[in-house]
């Protein structure tokens, strides 16, 4: 442990040297906080804000070692956010990469780490795996979450959290806490409410209704939401077909979400909670622009219908005995199933005799494709807590176990028709359908964890340790076809993830902290057993049963001050990631590859370093005026090649001024800014370089009467044309693209809602 403390100091010093400009600014702010006027982002938790994701139990955000921020229900409502990207828009070190061609935002990037390396939890239940779509952008699976109107708060935990959450938390945790009956009742026996909203950015109409009732023993909640809209606007105006198009692809969508909760508290020692959720949605798209540049030039029509359904059932039990060897026992039994069904239709003209999407010829054909994906999970979480004194020192211990079975199944079907002869075929450019790129199967995970917070006067030391084991098991699947004669394989492994954190209280409101964390992520089912081949273009993709878990070591030091008039949070961090699983091209003639094919394989290759710093602060300048701001600077590179990481966001900052002269009304002005993107690895893609931008948003609210509230937001107030680096990278937009304006963000747009509370 002493060695780890030395490493923390060494890494902090190195980070400070490499981030000299950030440190100089932050130190100046720290020396003149009362005069600074710059401040923590409005979503930053205050001293009294309680979070649960960071420690798996309730804790004040200011007392937690590490960077954790909260977006509250009130902020979501006032800013008129309609999706996850808009909820997190004011977090400078978090982004939601989106592909506007079809599927939009689907996963989260925290400090340069993204996709399935970020654990997303809704009331403790993980989101389904993200699957990136192929070239024609139809075989995707998004990480679905409830309507944002259902959230009580959203918690963002940065850095590896494997010591508490195990695999998939190697880059951080995003925790979504949905509303409970007590949040609506507020001491009453019955409450009803709802909202009606309109967003001009996609011409969407949103409606929600909520009901809650109960007393001391029984409480219930029922919420329903519905949304219908069109494509999200941008700053493009050309509506031609193909790669010259700059206006968004036409689409319509419709979503419905239902959430129900029933609480039973027979006495002070026991509490039961049953949660039921159902969500479904369908999107119809006319993808008039499919690819970038001249790719997929034979596709002249591409339409699709994408459907998603998710069902979640959770039973929570809390036991808090008045006198026992533990203070609290929590148990969570849950199941969730997410089903994706994407149907794709294409017209390919002047193409090859095999109906290629790229090769010219004299054939005209139609193609019908379908991608089906289902992932279900069944899990049990057990957790105990105990406060005790040992050798005169107060301790707060937490320990428990997580068990999870994850079942995954996917398939593709495809039929093409020669429009001249009417002949049909299920062999499309060398692929024989139906097929599965990996067989259906399951993954079993077991995690055992323990953590203790030891109070030594003003210093709190928190050691933690988690043991995880996993096993992948394929099942018989006739759609899984290989040409190399090999079978799908099982895989198992285990890992220990330690943690050591310390918090020193300079005063009641001011804490210094340092922490060392380790994380890991085991290879998933796709990376282990995927097999895809294209006999026409002679390339193949194969999984790797010998993959090692991805691992990380993280060092972070920081300062938190949260007073009633002003506050600041500052952090420096350095994260080392090893055995990154990458999709790589094997050398020609490699014995590992498919004979006669260019073969891509999942391999452990990269050693990645990400270091940076971020600062947030707030100042209550006047009784009615609150200023807040945030800044994030991150650098990352691949140690084996020395090349920069493209997943790193440019320098980003936020500033906000909130004016609340009375409880009846208020307004907020927000500025979101970023520098241009530099330090890009262009070895595989010559990416479009996004310029810097500054975007102004304005929101206002008016409590018309005690039970009726109006909310108005004007986003991109000055109609700024700008790009997000996360979207450019996610879509593969190149510097030579003939119409990059297709990837611009929305111009000026308005959102309006009315909320009822009875």
Describe the structure.
The protein is mostly beta strands and 758 residues long. It has a single domain, classed as Maltoporin, Chain A (Beta Barrel). It is 8% helix and 52% strand. It has nine helices and 38 strands. The strands form six sheets. The protein has a 22-stranded antiparallel beta barrel. Strands 3-10-11-8-9 form a five-stranded mixed beta sheet. Strands 1-2 form a two-stranded antiparallel sheet. It is globular, with a radius of gyration of 26 Å. Residues 1-47 have low confidence and may be disordered. Keywords: Cell outer membrane, Membrane, Receptor, Signal, TonB box, Transmembrane, Transmembrane beta strand, Transport. Belongs to the TonB-dependent receptor family. It is a multi-pass membrane protein.
Produce a short descriptive summary.
The chain is mainly beta and 758 residues long. The protein has 9 helices and 38 strands.
């Amino acid at each position: 442990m002493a060695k780890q403390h030395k490493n923390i100091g060494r890494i902090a010093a190195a980070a400070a040297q490499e981030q000299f400009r950030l440190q100089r600014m932050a130190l100046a702010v720290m020396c003149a906080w009362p005069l600074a006027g710059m401040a923590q982002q409005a979503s930053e938790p205050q001293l009294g804000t309680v979070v649960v994701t960071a420690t798996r139990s309730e804790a004040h955000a200011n007392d937690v070692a590490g960077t954790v921020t909260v977006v509250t229900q009130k902020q979501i409502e006032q800013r008129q956010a309609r999706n996850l990207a808009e909820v997190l828009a004011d977090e400078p070190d978090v982004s939601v990469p989106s592909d506007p061609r079809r599927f939009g935002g689907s996963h989260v990037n925290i400090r340069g780490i993204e996709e399935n390396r970020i654990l997303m939890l809704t009331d403790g239940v993980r989101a389904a795996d993200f699957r990136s779509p192929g070239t024609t952008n139809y075989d995707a699976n998004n990480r679905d979450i409830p309507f944002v109107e259902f959230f009580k708060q959203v918690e963002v935990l940065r850095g590896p959290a494997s010591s508490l959450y195990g695999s998939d938390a190697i880059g951080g945790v995003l925790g979504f806490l949905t509303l409970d009956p007590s949040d609506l009742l507020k001491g009453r026996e019955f409450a009803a409410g709802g909202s009606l909203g309109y967003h001009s950015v996609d011409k969407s109409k949103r409606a929600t209704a909520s009901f809650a009732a109960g007393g001391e023993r029984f409480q219930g909640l029922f919420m329903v939401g519905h949304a219908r809209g069109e494509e999200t606007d941008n700053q493009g105006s050309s509506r031609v077909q193909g790669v010259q198009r700059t206006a968004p692809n036409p689409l319509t969508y419709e979503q419905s979400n239902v959430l129900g909760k029933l609480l039973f508290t027979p006495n002070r020692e026991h509490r039961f909670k049953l949660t039921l959720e159902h969500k479904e949605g369908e999107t119809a798209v006319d993808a008039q622009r499919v690819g970038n540049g001249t790719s997929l030039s034979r596709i002249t029509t591409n339409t699709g219908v994408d459907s998603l359904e998710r069902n979640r059932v959770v039973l929570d039990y809390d036991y808090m005995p008045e006198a026992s060897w533990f203070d609290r026992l929590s148990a969570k039994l849950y199941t969730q199933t997410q089903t994706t069904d994407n149907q794709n239709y294409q017209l390919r003209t002047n193409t090859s005799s095999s109906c290629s999407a790229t090769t010219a010829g004299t054939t005209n054909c139609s193609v019908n494709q379908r991608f089906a994906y289902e992932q279900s999970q069944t899990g049990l979480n057990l957790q105990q807590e105990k406060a005790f004194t040992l050798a005169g020192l107060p301790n707060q211990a937490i320990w428990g176990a997580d068990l999870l079975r994850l079942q995954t199944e996917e398939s593709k079907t495809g039929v093409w028709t020669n429009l001249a002869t009417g002949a049909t075929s299920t062999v499309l450019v060398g692929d024989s359908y139906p097929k599965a790129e990996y067989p259906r199967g399951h993954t079993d995970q077991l995690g055992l964890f323990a953590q203790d917070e030891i109070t030594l006067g003003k210093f709190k030391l928190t050691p933690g340790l988690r043991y995880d084991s996993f096993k992948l098991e394929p099942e018989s699947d006739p759609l899984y076809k290989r040409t190399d004669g090999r079978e799908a394989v099982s895989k198992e492994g285990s890992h220990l993830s330690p943690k050591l954190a310390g918090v020193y209280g300079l005063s009641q409101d001011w804490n210094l902290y340092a922490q060392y964390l380790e994380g890991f992520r085991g290879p998933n089912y796709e990376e282990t057993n995927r097999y895809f081949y294209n006999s026409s273009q002679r390339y193949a993709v194969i999984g790797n049963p010998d993959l090692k878990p991805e691992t990380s070591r993280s060092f972070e030091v920081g300062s938190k001050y949260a007073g009633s008039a002003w506050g600041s949070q500052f952090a420096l961090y350095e994260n080392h990631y090893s055995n990154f699983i990458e999709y790589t091209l094997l050398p020609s003639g490699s014995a590992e590859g498919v004979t006669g094919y260019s073969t891509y394989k999942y391999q452990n290759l990269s050693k990645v370093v990400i270091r940076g710093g971020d600062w947030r602060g707030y100042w209550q300048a006047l009784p009615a005026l609150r200023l807040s701001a945030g800044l994030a600077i991150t650098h990352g590179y691949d140690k084996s090649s020395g090349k920069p990481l493209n997943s790193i966001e440019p320098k980003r900052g936020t500033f906000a001024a909130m004016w609340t002269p009375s409880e009846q009304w208020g307004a907020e002005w927000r500025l979101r800014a970023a520098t241009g993107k530099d330090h890009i690895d262009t070895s595989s893609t010559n990416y479009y370089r996004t310029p810097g931008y500054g975007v102004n948003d304005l929101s206002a609210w008016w409590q018309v009467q005690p039970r009726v509230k109006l909310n108005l937001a004007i986003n991109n107030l000055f109609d700024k044309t700008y790009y997000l680096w996360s979207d450019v990278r996610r879509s593969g937009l190149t510097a030579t693209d003939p119409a990059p304006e297709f990837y611009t963000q929305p111009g000026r747009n308005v959102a309006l809602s009315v909320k009822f509370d009875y």
